[in-house]
Design goal:
By secondary structure, the protein is mostly helical. It has a single domain (5-364, 378-394), classed as Sodium/glucose cotransporter. It has 21 helices and no strands. The protein has helices at residues 5-25, 32-37, 44-55, 58-70, 76-99, 107-113, 115-148, 152-200, 205-212, 229-234, 239-255, 258-264, 270-301, 307-313, 323-331, 336-368, 377-399, 409-433, 439-458, 473-491, 494-498. Helix 7 runs antiparallel to helix 18 (409-433).
Protein backbone atom coordinates (compact mmCIF):
# COMPACT_ATOMS: atom_id res chain seq x y z
CA UNK A 1 0.00 0.00 0.00
CA UNK A 2 1.36 3.41 -0.97
CA UNK A 3 1.09 6.72 0.78
CA UNK A 4 -2.22 8.36 -0.09
CA UNK A 5 -3.17 12.02 -0.41
CA UNK A 6 -4.67 11.77 3.09
CA UNK A 7 -1.35 10.50 4.49
CA UNK A 8 0.63 13.26 2.83
CA UNK A 9 -1.87 15.78 4.15
CA UNK A 10 -1.47 14.52 7.72
CA UNK A 11 2.33 14.75 7.52
CA UNK A 12 2.23 18.24 5.99
CA UNK A 13 -0.27 19.44 8.60
CA UNK A 14 1.96 17.97 11.31
CA UNK A 15 5.08 19.74 10.01
CA UNK A 16 3.29 23.09 9.72
CA UNK A 17 1.58 22.70 13.11
CA UNK A 18 4.73 21.80 15.04
CA UNK A 19 6.53 24.72 13.42
CA UNK A 20 3.80 27.19 14.39
CA UNK A 21 3.47 25.71 17.88
CA UNK A 22 7.21 26.00 18.43
CA UNK A 23 7.17 29.64 17.42
CA UNK A 24 4.08 30.34 19.57
CA UNK A 25 5.56 28.84 22.75
CA UNK A 26 8.99 30.42 22.35
CA UNK A 27 8.07 33.75 23.93
CA UNK A 28 10.41 36.71 23.79
CA UNK A 29 14.11 35.86 23.86
CA UNK A 30 16.12 38.73 25.34
CA UNK A 31 19.17 36.95 26.78
CA UNK A 32 21.13 33.72 26.55
CA UNK A 33 19.48 32.66 29.83
CA UNK A 34 16.13 32.85 28.01
CA UNK A 35 17.47 31.23 24.85
CA UNK A 36 19.38 28.35 26.47
CA UNK A 37 17.74 27.87 29.91
CA UNK A 38 14.18 29.11 29.44
CA UNK A 39 14.71 31.55 32.34
CA UNK A 40 14.65 28.44 34.60
CA UNK A 41 10.85 28.47 34.50
CA UNK A 42 10.08 25.09 32.90
CA UNK A 43 7.81 22.76 34.96
CA UNK A 44 9.49 19.51 36.01
CA UNK A 45 7.01 17.34 34.11
CA UNK A 46 7.65 19.26 30.88
CA UNK A 47 11.41 18.89 31.38
CA UNK A 48 10.85 15.17 32.05
CA UNK A 49 8.89 14.67 28.82
CA UNK A 50 11.48 16.71 26.94
CA UNK A 51 14.28 14.48 28.26
CA UNK A 52 12.36 11.39 27.11
CA UNK A 53 11.61 12.90 23.69
CA UNK A 54 15.20 14.08 23.29
CA UNK A 55 16.73 10.66 23.91
CA UNK A 56 13.98 8.95 21.89
CA UNK A 57 15.02 9.56 18.35
CA UNK A 58 13.92 7.63 15.30
CA UNK A 59 16.53 5.06 16.40
CA UNK A 60 14.17 3.98 19.16
CA UNK A 61 11.17 4.00 16.85
CA UNK A 62 12.56 1.81 14.07
CA UNK A 63 15.91 0.37 15.16
CA UNK A 64 14.81 -1.24 18.43
CA UNK A 65 11.94 -3.17 16.76
CA UNK A 66 14.53 -4.31 14.19
CA UNK A 67 16.85 -5.34 17.01
CA UNK A 68 14.11 -7.42 18.66
CA UNK A 69 13.26 -8.97 15.28
CA UNK A 70 16.77 -10.35 14.77
CA UNK A 71 17.46 -11.19 18.44
CA UNK A 72 15.25 -10.92 21.55
CA UNK A 73 14.24 -8.51 24.34
CA UNK A 74 17.60 -8.54 26.17
CA UNK A 75 18.03 -4.87 25.32
CA UNK A 76 15.55 -4.22 28.16
CA UNK A 77 18.35 -4.98 30.63
CA UNK A 78 20.07 -1.81 29.44
CA UNK A 79 16.90 0.21 30.10
CA UNK A 80 16.81 -1.12 33.66
CA UNK A 81 20.38 0.05 34.11
CA UNK A 82 19.32 3.45 32.75
CA UNK A 83 16.93 3.87 35.69
CA UNK A 84 19.70 3.10 38.19
CA UNK A 85 22.06 5.56 36.52
CA UNK A 86 19.45 8.34 36.56
CA UNK A 87 18.93 7.93 40.30
CA UNK A 88 22.67 8.38 40.82
CA UNK A 89 22.62 11.49 38.61
CA UNK A 90 19.72 12.93 40.60
CA UNK A 91 21.50 12.72 43.95
CA UNK A 92 25.19 13.09 42.99
CA UNK A 93 25.44 15.34 39.93
CA UNK A 94 22.41 17.66 40.08
CA UNK A 95 23.13 19.04 43.59
CA UNK A 96 26.56 20.18 42.39
CA UNK A 97 25.09 21.86 39.29
CA UNK A 98 22.46 23.73 41.26
CA UNK A 99 24.75 24.71 44.13
CA UNK A 100 27.07 26.33 41.60
CA UNK A 101 24.22 27.96 39.64
CA UNK A 102 25.72 26.49 36.48
CA UNK A 103 24.54 27.05 32.91
CA UNK A 104 26.21 24.05 31.25
CA UNK A 105 27.48 20.66 32.40
CA UNK A 106 31.06 21.57 31.52
CA UNK A 107 31.06 24.62 33.79
CA UNK A 108 31.65 22.15 36.62
CA UNK A 109 34.88 20.98 35.00
CA UNK A 110 35.93 24.60 34.59
CA UNK A 111 35.37 25.40 38.25
CA UNK A 112 37.11 22.20 39.35
CA UNK A 113 40.08 21.97 36.96
CA UNK A 114 40.17 25.27 35.06
CA UNK A 115 38.96 26.75 31.78
CA UNK A 116 41.13 24.53 29.55
CA UNK A 117 39.33 21.41 30.78
CA UNK A 118 35.95 23.05 30.29
CA UNK A 119 36.81 23.95 26.70
CA UNK A 120 38.36 20.54 25.99
CA UNK A 121 35.25 18.71 27.21
CA UNK A 122 33.03 21.09 25.23
CA UNK A 123 34.89 20.42 21.99
CA UNK A 124 34.70 16.64 22.42
CA UNK A 125 30.98 16.95 23.23
CA UNK A 126 30.51 18.80 19.95
CA UNK A 127 32.34 16.06 18.02
CA UNK A 128 30.26 13.39 19.78
CA UNK A 129 26.95 15.05 18.95
CA UNK A 130 27.89 15.64 15.31
CA UNK A 131 28.44 11.94 14.63
CA UNK A 132 25.88 10.40 17.03
CA UNK A 133 23.07 12.64 15.80
CA UNK A 134 24.21 12.28 12.22
CA UNK A 135 23.31 8.58 12.64
CA UNK A 136 19.96 9.51 14.12
CA UNK A 137 19.12 11.93 11.33
CA UNK A 138 20.03 9.39 8.67
CA UNK A 139 17.82 6.81 10.41
CA UNK A 140 14.92 9.26 10.16
CA UNK A 141 15.42 9.44 6.40
CA UNK A 142 14.96 5.66 6.01
CA UNK A 143 11.16 5.50 6.38
CA UNK A 144 10.65 8.76 4.49
CA UNK A 145 12.70 7.36 1.60
CA UNK A 146 10.69 4.12 1.71
CA UNK A 147 7.40 5.98 1.51
CA UNK A 148 8.11 8.88 -0.84
CA UNK A 149 10.85 7.51 -3.06
CA UNK A 150 12.91 10.64 -2.44
CA UNK A 151 16.67 10.38 -1.97
CA UNK A 152 18.32 10.51 1.45
CA UNK A 153 19.53 14.05 0.75
CA UNK A 154 16.01 15.38 0.19
CA UNK A 155 14.61 13.51 3.20
CA UNK A 156 17.29 14.86 5.54
CA UNK A 157 16.78 18.36 4.19
CA UNK A 158 13.02 18.32 4.86
CA UNK A 159 13.39 17.22 8.48
CA UNK A 160 16.35 19.49 9.18
CA UNK A 161 14.92 22.71 7.76
CA UNK A 162 11.59 22.53 9.59
CA UNK A 163 13.35 21.70 12.87
CA UNK A 164 15.96 24.42 12.66
CA UNK A 165 13.40 27.18 12.04
CA UNK A 166 11.68 26.95 15.43
CA UNK A 167 14.96 26.03 17.17
CA UNK A 168 16.64 29.11 15.67
CA UNK A 169 13.88 31.53 16.64
CA UNK A 170 12.44 30.10 19.85
CA UNK A 171 15.41 28.66 21.71
CA UNK A 172 15.03 26.09 24.49
CA UNK A 173 11.42 27.01 25.34
CA UNK A 174 10.27 26.20 21.83
CA UNK A 175 12.36 23.03 21.88
CA UNK A 176 10.98 21.75 25.19
CA UNK A 177 7.31 22.48 24.54
CA UNK A 178 7.41 20.95 21.08
CA UNK A 179 9.18 17.95 22.65
CA UNK A 180 6.19 17.47 24.96
CA UNK A 181 3.74 17.37 22.05
CA UNK A 182 6.03 15.23 19.92
CA UNK A 183 6.43 12.62 22.66
CA UNK A 184 2.68 12.01 22.71
CA UNK A 185 2.50 11.92 18.92
CA UNK A 186 5.08 9.16 18.55
CA UNK A 187 3.52 7.21 21.44
CA UNK A 188 0.19 7.32 19.60
CA UNK A 189 1.92 6.23 16.40
CA UNK A 190 3.53 3.26 18.18
CA UNK A 191 0.23 2.22 19.80
CA UNK A 192 -1.55 2.45 16.43
CA UNK A 193 1.10 0.23 14.84
CA UNK A 194 0.73 -2.40 17.55
CA UNK A 195 -3.03 -2.42 17.08
CA UNK A 196 -2.76 -2.90 13.30
CA UNK A 197 -0.20 -5.71 13.63
CA UNK A 198 -2.46 -7.42 16.17
CA UNK A 199 -5.45 -7.28 13.83
CA UNK A 200 -3.36 -8.74 10.98
CA UNK A 201 -2.33 -11.79 13.01
CA UNK A 202 -4.92 -14.57 12.50
CA UNK A 203 -4.37 -15.93 15.99
CA UNK A 204 -3.75 -12.58 17.65
CA UNK A 205 -1.36 -12.64 20.58
CA UNK A 206 -1.10 -16.45 20.45
CA UNK A 207 0.67 -16.11 17.09
CA UNK A 208 3.29 -13.87 18.70
CA UNK A 209 3.81 -16.43 21.46
CA UNK A 210 4.01 -19.35 19.02
CA UNK A 211 6.63 -17.73 16.79
CA UNK A 212 8.68 -15.97 19.49
CA UNK A 213 8.85 -18.71 22.12
CA UNK A 214 10.96 -21.32 20.24
CA UNK A 215 13.78 -18.83 19.79
CA UNK A 216 13.53 -17.44 23.36
CA UNK A 217 12.73 -14.06 21.88
CA UNK A 218 10.75 -13.07 24.99
CA UNK A 219 13.92 -13.35 27.06
CA UNK A 220 14.34 -9.98 28.78
CA UNK A 221 17.00 -10.86 31.32
CA UNK A 222 19.93 -13.06 30.45
CA UNK A 223 20.97 -14.91 33.62
CA UNK A 224 23.42 -17.17 31.79
CA UNK A 225 26.89 -16.83 33.25
CA UNK A 226 29.63 -16.19 30.67
CA UNK A 227 32.19 -18.95 30.26
CA UNK A 228 35.08 -16.48 30.20
CA UNK A 229 35.95 -12.82 30.65
CA UNK A 230 36.15 -12.49 26.87
CA UNK A 231 32.57 -13.70 26.50
CA UNK A 232 31.43 -11.36 29.30
CA UNK A 233 32.74 -8.29 27.50
CA UNK A 234 32.20 -9.30 23.88
CA UNK A 235 29.13 -11.55 23.96
CA UNK A 236 25.46 -10.56 23.71
CA UNK A 237 23.55 -8.42 26.16
CA UNK A 238 23.98 -9.91 29.64
CA UNK A 239 22.33 -8.98 32.92
CA UNK A 240 25.64 -7.81 34.36
CA UNK A 241 26.50 -5.77 31.30
CA UNK A 242 23.00 -4.33 31.08
CA UNK A 243 22.78 -3.20 34.69
CA UNK A 244 26.34 -1.96 35.13
CA UNK A 245 26.80 -0.73 31.56
CA UNK A 246 23.35 0.84 31.43
CA UNK A 247 23.86 2.63 34.74
CA UNK A 248 27.22 4.07 33.66
CA UNK A 249 25.85 5.04 30.25
CA UNK A 250 22.92 6.88 31.89
CA UNK A 251 25.26 8.58 34.35
CA UNK A 252 27.28 9.86 31.40
CA UNK A 253 24.36 10.84 29.16
CA UNK A 254 22.21 12.45 31.87
CA UNK A 255 24.95 13.70 34.15
CA UNK A 256 27.64 14.97 31.74
CA UNK A 257 26.06 15.36 28.28
CA UNK A 258 24.88 18.93 27.69
CA UNK A 259 22.12 17.61 25.43
CA UNK A 260 20.25 16.25 28.48
CA UNK A 261 21.75 18.32 31.30
CA UNK A 262 20.55 21.51 29.61
CA UNK A 263 16.94 20.32 29.95
CA UNK A 264 17.42 19.49 33.62
CA UNK A 265 18.88 22.95 34.29
CA UNK A 266 15.74 24.65 32.95
CA UNK A 267 13.84 23.58 36.10
CA UNK A 268 13.42 26.15 38.86
CA UNK A 269 15.24 24.15 41.56
CA UNK A 270 17.15 20.98 42.35
CA UNK A 271 14.12 19.01 43.57
CA UNK A 272 12.19 19.64 40.36
CA UNK A 273 15.19 18.59 38.28
CA UNK A 274 15.59 15.39 40.30
CA UNK A 275 11.96 14.44 39.71
CA UNK A 276 12.36 15.11 36.00
CA UNK A 277 15.38 12.85 35.55
CA UNK A 278 14.12 9.94 37.67
CA UNK A 279 10.63 9.80 36.15
CA UNK A 280 12.14 10.03 32.67
CA UNK A 281 13.90 6.72 33.37
CA UNK A 282 10.62 5.00 34.23
CA UNK A 283 8.99 6.26 31.02
CA UNK A 284 11.96 5.18 28.90
CA UNK A 285 11.89 1.68 30.41
CA UNK A 286 8.21 1.31 29.45
CA UNK A 287 8.93 2.79 26.05
CA UNK A 288 11.73 0.32 25.30
CA UNK A 289 9.43 -2.56 26.26
CA UNK A 290 6.78 -1.30 23.84
CA UNK A 291 9.15 -1.00 20.88
CA UNK A 292 10.75 -4.38 21.57
CA UNK A 293 7.28 -5.94 21.59
CA UNK A 294 6.58 -4.33 18.22
CA UNK A 295 9.64 -6.16 16.90
CA UNK A 296 8.34 -9.49 18.19
CA UNK A 297 4.90 -8.84 16.73
CA UNK A 298 6.50 -8.11 13.36
CA UNK A 299 8.41 -11.37 13.68
CA UNK A 300 5.10 -13.18 14.05
CA UNK A 301 3.53 -11.18 11.20
CA UNK A 302 6.31 -12.26 8.85
CA UNK A 303 5.89 -15.84 10.13
CA UNK A 304 9.24 -16.06 11.85
CA UNK A 305 11.21 -15.42 8.68
CA UNK A 306 14.94 -15.07 9.13
CA UNK A 307 16.22 -11.58 8.42
CA UNK A 308 18.17 -12.69 5.33
CA UNK A 309 15.08 -14.38 3.91
CA UNK A 310 13.00 -11.30 4.63
CA UNK A 311 15.66 -9.16 3.00
CA UNK A 312 15.37 -11.16 -0.22
CA UNK A 313 11.58 -11.08 -0.23
CA UNK A 314 11.29 -7.33 0.32
CA UNK A 315 12.11 -4.63 -2.19
CA UNK A 316 15.31 -2.70 -1.36
CA UNK A 317 15.49 -4.00 2.22
CA UNK A 318 19.16 -3.79 3.23
CA UNK A 319 19.25 -3.52 7.05
CA UNK A 320 17.18 -4.51 10.12
CA UNK A 321 16.25 -0.86 10.68
CA UNK A 322 14.08 -1.05 7.54
CA UNK A 323 11.80 -3.87 8.76
CA UNK A 324 9.39 -1.58 10.63
CA UNK A 325 9.30 1.07 7.87
CA UNK A 326 8.56 -1.74 5.39
CA UNK A 327 5.56 -2.72 7.50
CA UNK A 328 4.37 0.91 7.61
CA UNK A 329 4.44 1.11 3.84
CA UNK A 330 2.96 -2.35 3.23
CA UNK A 331 0.21 -2.72 5.79
CA UNK A 332 -0.94 0.48 7.47
CA UNK A 333 -4.24 1.81 6.10
CA UNK A 334 -4.65 5.28 4.65
CA UNK A 335 -4.51 7.97 7.29
CA UNK A 336 -2.84 5.74 9.86
CA UNK A 337 0.33 5.61 7.76
CA UNK A 338 0.49 9.39 7.89
CA UNK A 339 -0.01 9.34 11.67
CA UNK A 340 2.82 6.84 12.21
CA UNK A 341 5.17 8.76 9.92
CA UNK A 342 4.29 11.90 11.90
CA UNK A 343 5.32 9.92 14.98
CA UNK A 344 8.62 9.02 13.33
CA UNK A 345 9.22 12.65 12.48
CA UNK A 346 8.30 13.66 16.04
CA UNK A 347 10.87 11.26 17.49
CA UNK A 348 13.54 12.65 15.20
CA UNK A 349 12.73 16.35 15.41
CA UNK A 350 12.61 16.32 19.22
CA UNK A 351 16.18 15.03 19.30
CA UNK A 352 17.43 17.26 16.49
CA UNK A 353 16.04 20.46 17.97
CA UNK A 354 17.67 19.61 21.29
CA UNK A 355 20.96 18.87 19.54
CA UNK A 356 20.97 22.17 17.64
CA UNK A 357 20.27 24.16 20.81
CA UNK A 358 22.71 22.28 23.07
CA UNK A 359 25.53 22.58 20.52
CA UNK A 360 24.87 26.30 20.27
CA UNK A 361 24.83 26.68 24.08
CA UNK A 362 28.14 24.84 24.42
CA UNK A 363 29.69 26.89 21.61
CA UNK A 364 28.65 30.26 23.04
CA UNK A 365 28.71 29.67 26.82
CA UNK A 366 31.65 27.26 27.12
CA UNK A 367 33.91 28.25 24.24
CA UNK A 368 33.33 31.91 23.36
CA UNK A 369 31.62 33.69 26.25
CA UNK A 370 33.84 36.55 27.39
CA UNK A 371 35.45 37.03 23.97
CA UNK A 372 35.63 40.56 22.67
CA UNK A 373 33.14 40.01 19.84
CA UNK A 374 30.44 39.14 22.44
CA UNK A 375 30.18 42.65 23.88
CA UNK A 376 26.63 42.54 25.22
CA UNK A 377 23.43 40.47 25.40
CA UNK A 378 22.43 41.52 21.89
CA UNK A 379 25.69 40.16 20.48
CA UNK A 380 25.34 36.93 22.47
CA UNK A 381 21.79 36.40 21.19
CA UNK A 382 22.82 37.06 17.60
CA UNK A 383 25.71 34.62 17.69
CA UNK A 384 23.64 32.05 19.63
CA UNK A 385 21.15 31.92 16.78
CA UNK A 386 23.93 31.81 14.19
CA UNK A 387 25.53 28.92 16.08
CA UNK A 388 22.18 27.08 16.05
CA UNK A 389 21.94 27.51 12.28
CA UNK A 390 25.57 26.51 11.72
CA UNK A 391 25.32 23.25 13.68
CA UNK A 392 22.04 22.38 11.99
CA UNK A 393 23.79 22.50 8.62
CA UNK A 394 26.69 20.40 9.95
CA UNK A 395 24.39 17.72 11.41
CA UNK A 396 22.40 17.48 8.19
CA UNK A 397 25.62 17.03 6.22
CA UNK A 398 26.92 14.39 8.63
CA UNK A 399 23.74 12.35 8.34
CA UNK A 400 24.66 11.43 4.78
CA UNK A 401 27.87 9.69 5.91
CA UNK A 402 26.11 6.64 7.35
CA UNK A 403 24.28 5.27 4.33
CA UNK A 404 26.53 2.19 4.14
CA UNK A 405 26.20 1.18 7.81
CA UNK A 406 24.31 -2.15 7.91
CA UNK A 407 24.25 -2.89 11.67
CA UNK A 408 21.27 -1.78 13.77
CA UNK A 409 21.77 1.98 14.01
CA UNK A 410 20.86 2.18 17.69
CA UNK A 411 23.84 -0.07 18.48
CA UNK A 412 26.15 1.94 16.21
CA UNK A 413 25.06 5.32 17.66
CA UNK A 414 25.46 4.15 21.26
CA UNK A 415 28.98 2.94 20.47
CA UNK A 416 29.89 6.35 19.03
CA UNK A 417 28.53 8.09 22.12
CA UNK A 418 30.35 5.75 24.45
CA UNK A 419 33.74 6.59 22.90
CA UNK A 420 33.59 9.93 24.67
CA UNK A 421 31.07 9.18 27.42
CA UNK A 422 33.48 6.90 29.27
CA UNK A 423 36.26 9.45 29.58
CA UNK A 424 33.81 12.30 30.14
CA UNK A 425 32.06 10.55 33.02
CA UNK A 426 35.45 9.47 34.33
CA UNK A 427 36.82 13.00 34.47
CA UNK A 428 33.63 14.30 36.17
CA UNK A 429 33.90 11.59 38.82
CA UNK A 430 37.64 12.26 39.07
CA UNK A 431 36.88 15.83 40.06
CA UNK A 432 34.32 14.69 42.63
CA UNK A 433 36.25 11.80 44.20
CA UNK A 434 39.95 12.71 44.05
CA UNK A 435 40.70 16.02 45.74
CA UNK A 436 44.36 15.89 44.65
CA UNK A 437 43.52 15.63 40.96
CA UNK A 438 44.70 18.61 38.92
CA UNK A 439 44.22 19.90 35.39
CA UNK A 440 47.12 17.89 33.98
CA UNK A 441 45.69 14.67 35.46
CA UNK A 442 42.26 15.38 34.02
CA UNK A 443 43.50 16.23 30.52
CA UNK A 444 45.86 13.25 30.23
CA UNK A 445 43.43 10.68 31.63
CA UNK A 446 40.53 11.99 29.53
CA UNK A 447 42.62 11.92 26.35
CA UNK A 448 43.96 8.44 27.06
CA UNK A 449 40.45 7.07 27.68
CA UNK A 450 39.22 8.46 24.34
CA UNK A 451 42.19 6.97 22.47
CA UNK A 452 41.80 3.51 24.01
CA UNK A 453 38.03 3.41 23.46
CA UNK A 454 38.45 4.58 19.87
CA UNK A 455 40.89 1.73 19.29
CA UNK A 456 38.40 -0.73 20.81
CA UNK A 457 35.79 0.63 18.40
CA UNK A 458 37.91 0.59 15.21
CA UNK A 459 40.12 -2.52 15.55
CA UNK A 460 37.23 -5.05 15.51
CA UNK A 461 36.24 -3.74 12.07
CA UNK A 462 39.56 -5.13 10.78
CA UNK A 463 39.21 -8.39 12.69
CA UNK A 464 42.18 -7.59 14.94
CA UNK A 465 40.27 -7.96 18.23
CA UNK A 466 36.74 -9.08 19.17
CA UNK A 467 34.03 -6.43 19.18
CA UNK A 468 33.37 -5.07 22.68
CA UNK A 469 29.71 -5.06 23.70
CA UNK A 470 28.43 -1.47 23.78
CA UNK A 471 27.25 -1.86 27.38
CA UNK A 472 30.86 -1.88 28.58
CA UNK A 473 32.31 1.10 26.69
CA UNK A 474 31.40 3.77 29.25
CA UNK A 475 32.38 1.59 32.21
CA UNK A 476 35.78 0.86 30.66
CA UNK A 477 36.26 4.56 29.96
CA UNK A 478 35.76 5.42 33.63
CA UNK A 479 38.20 2.72 34.74
CA UNK A 480 40.82 3.87 32.21
CA UNK A 481 40.41 7.49 33.35
CA UNK A 482 40.78 6.59 37.03
CA UNK A 483 43.83 4.37 36.51
CA UNK A 484 45.58 6.88 34.25
CA UNK A 485 44.86 9.81 36.57
CA UNK A 486 46.19 7.94 39.59
CA UNK A 487 49.36 7.10 37.68
CA UNK A 488 49.89 10.74 36.71
CA UNK A 489 49.18 11.86 40.28
CA UNK A 490 51.69 9.32 41.57
CA UNK A 491 54.48 10.40 39.25
CA UNK A 492 53.66 14.10 39.06
CA UNK A 493 56.59 16.22 40.17
CA UNK A 494 56.40 18.13 43.42
CA UNK A 495 56.50 21.39 41.51
CA UNK A 496 53.47 20.49 39.44
CA UNK A 497 51.74 19.11 42.52
CA UNK A 498 52.13 22.40 44.35
CA UNK A 499 50.96 24.56 41.45
CA UNK A 500 47.61 26.22 42.16
CA UNK A 501 44.54 25.27 40.16
CA UNK A 502 43.25 27.78 37.68
CA UNK A 503 39.58 28.19 38.58
CA UNK A 504 37.21 30.19 36.43
Amino acid sequence: MHFTVLDYSIVIVYLISVLLFGLYTSGKQTSTKDYFLGSKSIPWWAACFSVVATETSTLTFISIPGLAYISNMNFLQLAFGFVIGRIIVAFIFLPKYYSGNMETAYQFLGSRFGKPMRKYASVTFIVLRIFADGVRLFTTAIPIKFITGLGYFECILIVGIVTVIYSYIGGIKAVIWTDVIQMFIYFIGAAASMYVIYTLLPGGWSDVVNYATPGDKFQSFNFTMPSSLTELFTGGYSLTGGLIGGAFLAMASHGTDQLIVQRLLTCKDKKSSQKAVIFSGVIVFIQFAVFLLIGLMLFALYKGAEYKTLMLDANNLTKPDEIFPMFIVSYLPAGLSGLVVAGLLSASMSTLSSTFNSLASTTILDLFQGNRFLKNEMDEMKYSRLATLFWAIVIMGTGLLFQSETNPAVDFALRIQSLIYGGLLGVFLLGMVFRKARLVDAVISYSFAILILTALFILPKFGIIPSLNLTWFTFFGVIITFVTANVTMLFRSKTTDNMPQTPE
